[in-house]
Write a structure and sequence with these properties.
Blueprint (H helix, E strand, L loop, with lengths): L1 H8 L20 H4 L8 H9 L35 H18 L42 H17 L14 E3 L9 H12 L8 E5 L2 E5 L3 E3 L7 E4 L8 E5 L10 E4 L3 E6 L1 E4 L8 E4 L5 E3 L6 E6 L4 E4 L2 E5 L3 E6 L3 E4 L4 E5 L4 E6 L3 E4 L3 E3 L14 E6 L3 E3 L4 E3 L4 E6 L3 E3 L4 E2 L9 E4 L3 E3 L4 E3 L3 E6 L2 E3 L4 E3 L4 E6 L2 E5 L2 E3 L4 E6 L3 E5 L5 E2 L3 E5 L3 E2 L6 E2 L3 E4 L1
Length: about 550
């Protein structure tokens, strides 16, 4: 910039000098002196005139300044028509460069001292441009460097974390949402639920919003479905002393494969307690009718659940006072879904079709102390007769210690195709069909320690599966207390009494090994029946004997 300005001015800098003054030649008049030496020749006159400036009334126009002509340097603050010589220009340019350098220092890594105001947009290029870090309390037009911004963001996050209400989150337990026929915030259960979900999205930490539902019957013509983890913060509470007083009646379910509360793709129902969840049994719902023997017939395509968790991370949590009735499945956990009933002492699963509680495809159900009753599907008995209280299949897992099973058409407990069940201290009884109390097949495994199984055709049937019956009582079964049909039954201190045909039966290379149990065997038609070794008809292949070792 300096080089350009100096070129434009074309004036050379030099030391200051005294103000110029006009001069005339010291010529004398020959007429006055009569001295021939005072006569001036024309070349002399021409030489003097060539060094003069033509002016009219003191104004000169179109001047051409040649060579090292000098002028006085104006003062630094001069803002007039005075000639700016090279000294003035050098000083002005130096001052300008100083301001620019102080304001930019664009690629030098330097710092700015003092306040600099830019009147035009400024673009910084290159890396490493720096500025002094303003004070934390600075709220002005000063440049904020990365250190200032980082500090501000950290402080802001700390402030929000300490007080989430600043950005809309509730820092404390939000007010309850109430539902009842009149006098509450809502009279419609669905509207209350939707409002709670909206609030759940404003929750922080372990806080939740509770829907308190008053006594009454709430007719609902749609299901509830969530794939939203935020619904974990919604707790739905009815009458926890008597759940029959708060009824959620789902209508229009016939032919819809309708699941009342569906959690899928990671959705979570955080907590529900104090309700009867049902649908009509008059033929307009999933169930078509019930015959005189107590066996249910079902409408086509009506195979939904009261509660269903489908997919990894999908979770449903139920409290200790719940009734689920008239769904083809009461509870389902499928494809790694999870249903959690950690205290089922007041949880009743009534009148299902295929199964009351089914864990399938890697799903898990925890239903400790739950009561399952009335599972049956007698719609097409020539095709299939279904109806079990609990079922773990295709890698599903049941934790049902202390639970009860009654009025089943097929079995009290099923473990199929790699299923597993922890079923200690259960009471399995009063079937309406002729199936086994517990059927364990397809490399499945069940622990039945301390349970009681009575009134079935077979108490425990390990059909190519594994069963532990330590401390289990198997009585009053029409065929056998224990059957190892290609499977394995082990345990100790089992009680096997009053079974019509066999106390213990083993066939198809099945194996039974029981310790400290023989003393507890009595009243059986025959205590032991083990199939011997033999040869298969047709192929002629031989097989080994089944074995029973009861001590």
């Amino acid at each position: 910039m300096k080089r350009i300005l100096l070129t434009m001015l074309a004036v050379m800098a030099s030391p200051a000098m005294a103000s110029p003054s006009n001069s005339t030649p010291e010529w004398k008049s020959y007429q006055q002196t009569g001295n021939p030496a005072d006569i001036v020749s024309s070349p002399q006159v021409a030489a003097v005139l060539g060094a003069k400036i033509d002016a009219t009334d003191g104004q000169a126009q179109n001047l051409q300044i040649q060579g090292g002509t000098q002028t006085v340097t104006p003062a630094a603050g001069d803002n007039s028509n005075n000639i700016a010589n090279t000294g003035y220009t050098d000083r002005a340019v130096a001052n300008l460069l100083s301001v620019v350098q102080a304001g930019f220092l664009a690629n030098t890594g330097g710092t700015v001292s003092g306040a600099t105001t830019f009147q035009q947009p400024v673009t910084f290029t290159g890396g490493g441009t720096q500025a002094v870090t303003p004070a934390a309390s600075d709220s002005s037009n000063n440049i904020a460097n990365t250190s200032f911004v980082g500090r501000a963001v950290t402080n802001a996050f700390s402030t929000i974390k300490a007080n989430p209400a600043l950005i809309g989150f509730q820092a404390v337990f939000s007010q309850n949402i109430t539902v009842c026929a009149s006098g509450c915030q809502f009279s419609d259960f669905t509207a209350a639920y939707n409002a709670a979900v909206l609030q759940a999205h404003l929750m922080y930490g372990n806080n939740f919003v509770e829907i308190d539902v008053g006594n009454g019957t709430y007719n609902i013509n749609h299901n509830f479905s969530t794939s939203d983890p935020a619904t974990a913060r919604v707790h739905i509470v009815g009458n926890t002393s008597d759940p029959t007083q708060v009824v959620l009646n789902f209508t229009g379910t016939k032919g819809t494969n309708f699941t009342a509360f569906l959690a899928n793709d990671g959705g979570i129902y955080g907590y529900m307690n104090g309700f009867t969840v049902t649908q009509p049994a008059d033929g307009s719902g999933a169930m078509a009718s019930t015959d005189s023997a107590g066996r249910h017939l079902w409408n086509a395509n009506s195979y939904g659940a009261g509660f269903g968790a489908y997919g990894g991370g999908s979770t449903i949590v139920l409290g200790p006072q719940m009734i689920v009735r008239n769904f083809y499945y009461s509870l389902v956990a499928d494809n790694n879904g999870f249903v959690d009933v950690p205290n089922g002492s007041g949880v009743y699963l009534y009148d299902a079709g295929d199964v009351n509680a089914m864990a399938r495809g890697g799903g898990t159900i925890v239903c400790l102390g739950c009561h399952a009753s009335g599972a049956s599907d007698y719609t097409n008995p020539s095709v299939a007769i279904l109806g079990s209280s609990f079922d773990a299949e295709r890698g599903g897992t049941l934790y049902i210690d202390g639970s009860t099973s009654a009025k089943t058409l097929e079995a009290g407990l099923l473990a199929l195709s790699g299923g597993a069940a922890w079923a200690h201290n259960m009471a399995i009884s009063s079937p309406v069909g002729t199936g086994p109390g517990a059927l364990i097949s397809g490399n499945s495994a069940v622990e039945l320690g301390g349970s009681s199984i009575t009134g079935f055709s077979i108490g425990v049937n390990a059909q190519y599966g594994f069963a532990d019956i330590s401390g289990t009582t198997l009585s009053n079964n029409s065929q056998a207390g224990v059957v190892a049909d290609g499977g394995v039954v082990t345990g100790s201190n089992a009680t096997i009494q009053n079974n019509t045909q066999y106390g213990v039966q083993a066939l198809h290379q099945g194996r039974v090994t029981l310790f400290a149990s023989y003393k507890n065997m009595s009243g059986n038609g025959t205590n032991f029946s083990a199939a011997p070794a033999g040869t298969t008809s047709g192929s002629g292949s031989s097989y080994t004997a089944s074995s029973i070792d009861v001590q």
